[in-house]
Amino acid sequence: MRQGKRPRTSQLYLTFRRRALASGSGRLASGLALLATLALTGPTATAEESALAQRGKELSRQHCARCHVISPDNRMGGIASTPSFMILIKALDDWQDRFQTFHVRRPHPAHVRFVGDAARAPDHPATITEVILVHDDIAAIVAYAEQLAREIK
Length: 153
Ligand code: HEC
Hints:
The chain has 153 residues and is mainly α. It has helices spanning 9-22, 26-41, 47-63, 85-91, 95-100, 136-152; strands at residues 112-114, 131-133.
């Protein structure tokens, strides 16, 4: 599922920075810091938005990628019968609404619940290992889908 995963910008930045500091080049390090900041935030999103989207991407990898292909870099992941996030965004006009409410749309109620919800009734077991979210996770996942939409549309 994680095959072919490219190193994250922040990891690349840390590697560069360690090298730059080792060679005593502070100016190179600060130039790279600026580049890394620009790469992370992109031209349209604010830093805060893209941090949220980054969290959403991690959550999607962790909780959604076992069924959905969640980004162009795990195209071979997921389950073929489950629509990829890219397809959902491209094909559905109301994809934002659907990402906001996926947890009540089938098949998700069979495995998603929120921290603080009552445990599942023993006669309604989860169909797969449960996904347990906090409500703020939804905003992060939606922010990630919005970032993905800007990338692919
Ligand atoms: C157990 C497999 C599975 C997991 C895990 C899963 N999904 Fe899905 N999801 C599906 C399937 C299958 C569909 C297509 C349902 C359909 O066509 O009726 C779907 C559809 C969707 C849709 C479109 C819903 C609609 O009614 O149009 C969204 C949005 C979505 N998933 C988001 C997510 C997110 C976000 C996560 C992770 C937090 C996630 N899914 C985790 C299987 C899964």
